[in-house]
Design a protein that fits this description.
This protein is an alpha+beta fold. Helix content is 35%, strand content 22%.
Length: 440
Amino acid sequence: MVAEIKDLIKTGEGYNLEFKESLGSDLGKEICAFVNAKGGRIILGVRDSGEVKGIELSNSDRSRIQDIARNMDPSFRVDIEKIENLILINIDEGKNKPYSVGGKFYLRVGANSQQMQRDEIRNFFHKEGLVLFDEKPNTKFHLKNDFDKYKFKKFLDLAKITDNQDYKITLNNLSLMENNKLKNAGVLFFCHRVTKFFLQATVTCVLYGGTKKVNIIDKKDFDADILSNYESAYNFILSKLNTNYIIKREREERLELPEEAIREALINAFIHRDYFSNGHIQIDISLDRLEISNPGGLVSGLTRKEFGKKSFPRNPLLMDLMLRADKVERAGTGIRRIKDAMGKYGLKVKFEDTSFFTVTFYRKKIGNVPENVPENVPDRLETIRDFISENDKIKISELAKKLDVNEKTIKRDIEKLKERGLIERVGSAKSGSWKVRSIE
């Protein structure tokens, strides 16, 4: 057991593992989040960095941990083990979801525990049916013949996981194995060709001549593992867009669309797509726009109001692997970063939610603006309005810094928002605050 816990620590925090240096007040939140997800383990006496500090628990401390679990609604029980100078708390998946602690509901999202409202989390479990594609063991995948150890090594390097133990132990510690079968999340990452197991898990990239999807100039289909497909699709997009030059203190070259926004939209398409659907990820590039579409609209339980502010991962184990591989910055913040990046470029972005989820990046075009560009608030104005909504005391100088524009530009944008009745100033310019009005 000593060797096992050391292997766990080497793996690092993630969807099924949490480190705690001490017995803190937030332990109940972490237990509740694991119970509402797929279970997990908490190791007491280890810092977030993986440094072992050790911990001593009294009998009253052990009772306190069990009391936290028993006092959840509904009641629960955890298993506590002492292993040398560490404490391991084993938490099974709950059978009567959703669970709450102190009247609050939590769900594991990546390596974090996120608070949810009861109706949100209940609807999520109900509508998703608790059948998660990425958690299903794949009976067709054979470790001996189908597992690509080179791709596994590449992932370990990205995740900064030490490669000094049997790969099956690491796969188990990453919660990628069940009954000696690799789960679908692992298959997507470590297969030779994804189409051998999932015909729908491909990416199609198309370049069109003009603004209509008629004249195909170039087309590529990618069907390797998920990381290779992401990199190939990203490189295809970059190769088809233009490079612009801007003058600041010196001449600067940059892509016509913000690369960080493209990366975010693309990685979201892989993480949040519905893999039960027969559809595939589609990337369309025309003269006036770049569209990235994936099967599956907004995840059940996520409302339009919470869009871009909360994260309900359709594939939580897949998200955990992407977080570890440093392909995702923080769960639930991607939409905000896309909007911020496009706002800095002064360009429009549109999000559509049908049976597919589509992100449309509008390119700069000489001449008239395309007819189908939405006649709504320009995206930088919407971004400013969002910042004001989050902080009604925010200053002009702070907004200018966040959006990388000068204060005169922000002042002009503020006036446009006020003219449209979207915001108003309450009180004096120095000590007053902003009030955001709803969009009709």
